[in-house]
Every structure is written in structure tokens, then in C-alpha cells.
Write a structure and sequence with these properties.
The chain is α+β, with helices and mostly antiparallel strands. The protein is built from twelve helices and 22 strands. It has three domains: 67-299 and 359-443, no CATH class; 302-350, no CATH class; 449-530, Nucleic acid-binding proteins (OB fold (Dihydrolipoamide Acetyltransferase, E2P), Beta Barrel), CATH 2.40.50.
């Protein structure tokens, strides 16, 4: 690792920077070294300093919560449960449901992290600095120490936990009729993995089967309403790495969104929306704009959409990307097609980046006028701050109360920088996770040199074709110079390459068969040739 020591003296393009070596990570091209470089690049560590560890050890944590019930609703008898990835340890959201004569009562119960992470502490300072947890293929770089994230704040089954609960009443047509945002004490009755919940939806018997199936029905109808009201239903796939007992990568699996994942997603979207509308209604009733953190998403760039539209036409589609209905029709039309996830990814990247802001401009992608992040305070700092703000608004009542006047002034001062910082840390986390996945994919596939794979052309440039493998989503490159049957010329306007003699064409979405000829960790390159 090198630190530039004369950056203040570099004024002209030919001024030479001077650096000082601050740490030697190891030999380049070695997997551990390359992963360490990602950690150092983004200043990631799963260790916390002794001051913070001391604060955590001093947290007054009691199992019975007898002295904490004041001002909280006791929901420990409610049948709430968690549904998370199989390897998750930080459970910050639980759900519950009741069938009513006039509709449904939905409960979304979120760990009250703000009770333990107080504002004027080293723990809070470090959580803000980190901004978010980072999920690498083999480890989690947590926002909070594991004693909090995986134990004290985690909604562990059969343990009493402090929570914020959003109790939402839906009518028989699945529209929101009312909601409450309350502090609570809950007890997670059962921990389900997504796979277990999906098995129940597919017919497996369970004492919670009725609840989970009812939730699934409600979630599917909430999704239909959301799409009709302007949400865009992007889809994506993730890769999951399997490791053997020695920690080596044994396999790469593709994880697609299942019904149970969509169920939780819809419930969390609903809770996030209700919480934001709670603050909006409170502001309206008090005739004063209350400070808050919003999750906002601006309108997409028209020029980018035009470029993407031209690209998509090569697949035989002609969408109007300025119209959400047309976008959703396109996403429906490509379901199950080879080009499905290529087009999804292109559309997602063409959109403006969602970010945190103290001013509300709405969320274009979701089609929501009011939206925030409330449901993941263990791993996202904005959610933690939203809890803290809600606690102040719930506890202090009238706007003329001296305490809440002071809090409003305080939040008005600190929220702009918190929003800016957390938006930056979120993008850094996304980049670190992508770079980590790329390195793990290369480390895995380098042992398959000479093997043949089926894939799809995911993109083109003037030197060759990008290929994404079907079985593990590894992306590599085929150079035009390595295609021996012709001389290929890239047509940037029409997004295709054509051979001069035989007129054979290549375009994105074509199925291909390739052989792996190179996988290099140092350059992060994967190269194929056509079979």
C-alpha cells in the first residue's frame, strides 16, 4: 500500500506524484493478497478498537426486560418469526400476520438497535464511520461488533428482544387502511431460512404453514398494487459460494429471488413506506417540516435511456423506456429468456443511483412519494438514525415540547452530512462486494483451464465480446483476434460485430460455447476462446 505524500504540490499534468510505502500486503496475483488489497482499499476491518469493545461489554443487557416495558407494547405472545438467508446471523426483522373479518393485520418488527447504540458514544461514532455492513463471499465486515449484531440486537429465536413494530391494517383488497408505529418487546417464535419457507409454500407441513401461505398471498397482491401504482419490478441473480472444511471454494451456486424472498421484500417495503408517511402526517398535523432521512431516487437520464433503448432493440424488443408500464412489460416479456438478466442489469445501471437525503424528492424506481430505510438498523446506519428520530417523535409528543424543539434543531444540523456520508459508504460497499465476488470467481475457475462452458454474450466493444457463463455467472472475454474464421468489425451504433467475409454476426444475448484459456487474479482477467 502506498500513500501519496506530495498531492498538494501536483499542479500540472506532468508533475510526478511521490509516494511512501505504508504496508506490504504480499505477492501480487496471490488470492489472499488480492483480497487484502480490497479490504485496505475500502478501509474494511471486522475488528473494533478496545474503547468500543469496552463500551459493548458495559451495555446493560437483561433477559427479562422487566424495567424496559414502560412505553412499550408487549408483543411476546404474538406469532412472529424471521425469514432470512440460511447463513444469516444478524436477524433484524420479524413478521407476523392475522386474518381479520375486514382484512389483514400485518406486523413488521425491527430490532431496536438505537436503544443500545446511543448518540454520544464511541460505538455510534464508529457505526457512522462504517455506514454499513459489507458482505463479502467468505465473511461479513459488520457495522456493529458481533456481540451486538449477532447477539444482543439480533432477533434470536425464543429470546425477548426490544423492537420497533409497525402494525399495518389492510382491507380485503390489500390496501392500507391504517397503521401504528410503536416501541415493543417481541419474541421470535421461529427462525426460517428462505429455503425452508419456500418448502412450506411448496407444500411442506409446518405449524406456521398457514401464516406463511397467507403472507405469501398478501405479498403477491401488494406487489400487484405496487406495480399498478408505478413501481418497476427489476429482477437479479446473486452468486453464493460454497466452501469445504479447509475454507477452499468448492462450488458457486446461482441464487435467484424466490417467493419467500419476495414476501419479505414486500413486507419491508410496506413498513418503510408507512414509517415515512407517519412522519409526513406528523409534519402536516403539526404544520412544521420535521427533519428526517429519506431514501430517494431521481428520474433517469434521458440520454442514457436512449442509448439503452438502442441496445435492447437488437433483442427484438421496442420498449419506451420513458414509460414505466412499457418497462414492466419488457421485464415481463424477457422472463426466462437468455437475455433476461443482461437487460435487467443494463436497465438498473441506466437509472440514477438511489441515495439518502434530508429533502424528499420521492423514489422513482419504486414509485413511492414517501420512502425511507427503516428495516435494517443492524447493518445500515441510516436505519439506525431513522429509529432514533422516530423514538424522539414518539416519546416527546407535541411540537412545542422543549425537548423535541432541541432535537429538531439538532437533526437539521447533522442529517445533511450523515446522508451524504452514508450514500458514499453504500456505494463503496457495493464496489467492494463486486470486487470480492470477482476475485472469488477467478480463484474458483482458474482450476478449470481448458474446460468448456456454455454462456451468453453479455456485451461487446471494439476489441471483442464479453461472455457470461451460465452455471456460475463468471464473466470473461473473447478477443476478435482469437476468432479464426473471419475478421470481425464492431458496429457501435447497432451493437453487433460482423465478419467481413462471411458476414457472420455476434450480438448480445447469443448463446455460445467457450473454452477457458486464462484466469488471472492480478489483472482480474478471464479469457475464453470459442469452441
Amino acid at each position: 500500500m502506498c500513500r501519496i505524500i506530495n498531492s498538494d504540490k501536483i499542479q500540472k499534468y506532468n508533475d510526478e506524484p511521490e509516494g511512501k510505502i505504508v504496508k506490504i500486503l504480499g505477492e501480487t496475483g496471490i488470492f489472499k493478497t488480492e483480497m487484502d488489497s480490497v479490504l485496505y482499499k475500502y478501509n474494511l476491518s471486522d475488528k473494533f478498537n478496545t474503547k468500543i469493545e469496552k463500551e459493548v461489554s458495559g451495555i446493560n443487557y437483561t433477559q427479562d426486560f422487566s424495567e424496559l416495558k414502560s412505553g412499550r407494547i408487549d408483543l411476546r405472545e404474538e406469532y412472529c418469526f424471521t425469514i432470512d438467508p440460511e447463513d444469516a446471523k444478524d436477524y433484524d426483522d420479524a413478521v407476523s400476520i392475522k386474518k381479520l373479518d375486514e382484512g389483514y393485520l400485518i406486523g413488521v418488527h425491527i430490532s431496536d438497535v438505537s436503544f443500545y447504540v446511543r448518540e454520544n458514544t464511541q460505538l455510534n461514532k464508529e457505526a457512522l464511520k462504517r455506514g454499513t455492513s459489507v458482505y463479502l463471499p467468505d465473511k461479513v465486515i459488520p457495522m456493529l461488533p458481533f456481540k451486538l449484531s449477532n447477539d444482543i440486537c439480533s432477533l434470536i429465536p425464543n429470546q425477548d428482544r426490544l423492537a420497533f413494530s409497525v402494525i399495518i391494517k389492510l382491507n380485503k383488497r390489500y390496501f392500507v387502511q391504517g397503521y401504528e408505529v410503536v416501541k415493543s418487546v417481541i419474541r421470535n417464535k421461529r427462525r426460517f431460512s428462505y429455503g425452508e419457507a419456500d418448502d412450506i409454500l411448496n407444500g411442506k407441513k409446518s405449524e406456521y404453514a398457514e401464516d406463511i401461505k397467507l403472507m405469501d398471498r398478501v405479498a403477491k397482491n401488494l406487489n400487484k398494487i405496487r406495480l399498478k401504482q408505478g413501481s418497476i419490478d427489476f429482477d437479479s441473480r446473486e452468486v453464493k459460494f460454497k466452501f469445504d472444511k479447509r475454507g477452499n471454494i468448492s462450488n458457486i451456486e446461482i441464487r435467484e429471488r424466490t417467493d419467500s424472498m419476495r414476501l419479505i421484500e414486500e413486507f419491508m417495503l410496506l413498513a418503510n413506506r408507512c414509517v415515512t408517511e407517519y412522519v409526513a402526517t406528523l409534519s402536516k398535523n403539526l404544520r412544521k417540516k420535521l427533519p428526517f432521512i429519506y431514501r430517494v431516487h431521481d428520474l433517469p437520464d434521458g440520454e442514457k435511456l436512449s442509448e439503452i433503448s438502442d441496445f435492447i432493440t437488437q433483442f427484438g424488443y421496442s420498449p419506451n423506456l420513458n414509460d414505466k408500464e412499457s418497462i414492466n412489460k419488457l421485464l415481463s416479456d424477457i422472463k426466462g429468456k437468455p437475455e433476461e438478466y443482461i437487460i435487467n442489469e443494463l436497465l438498473i445501471r441506466s437509472m440514477a443511483k438511489a441515495k439518502y437525503a434530508e429533502s424528499n424528492i420521492g423514489h422513482y424506481g419504486l414509485g413511492f412519494k414517501n420512502y425511507t430505510h427503516f428495516t435494517s438498523p443492524i447493518r445500515r446506519y441510516p436505519d439506525l438514525i431513522v429509529h432514533r428520530i422516530l423514538s424522539d417523535y414518539i416519546n416527546n409528543g407535541g411540537i412545542e415540547h422543549e425537548k423535541i424543539r432541541q432535537n429538531i434543531s439538532h437533526y437539521q444540523k447533522i442529517l445533511p452530512e450523515i446522508c451524504r456520508h452514508c450514500s458514499v459508504k453504500e456505494q463503496e460497499a457495493v464496489s467492494a462486494e463486486r470486487e470480492g465476488i470477482k476475485l472469488f470467481q477467478i480463484e474458483y475457475i482458474k482450476n478449470s483451464l481448458g474446460n468448456e462452458f456454455e454462456g451468453i454474450i453479455s456485451g461487446l466493444n471494439n476489441t471483442g465480446l464479453f461472455i457470461q457463463l451460465n452455471e456460475n455467472l463468471v464473466e470473461g472475454f473473447v478477443r476478435f483476434s482469437d476468432i479464426e474464421d473471419d475478421y470481425y468489425v464492431y458496429d457501435e451504433r447497432n451493437h453487433r460485430a460482423t465478419g467481413r467475409k462471411k458476414k457472420k454476426t455476434f450480438h448480445a444475448g447469443m448463446k455460445v460455447k467457450v473454452k477457458l484459456i486464462n484466469a488471472d487474479l492480478e489483472s482480474k482477467r478471464v479469457d475464453f476462446i470459442f469452441v
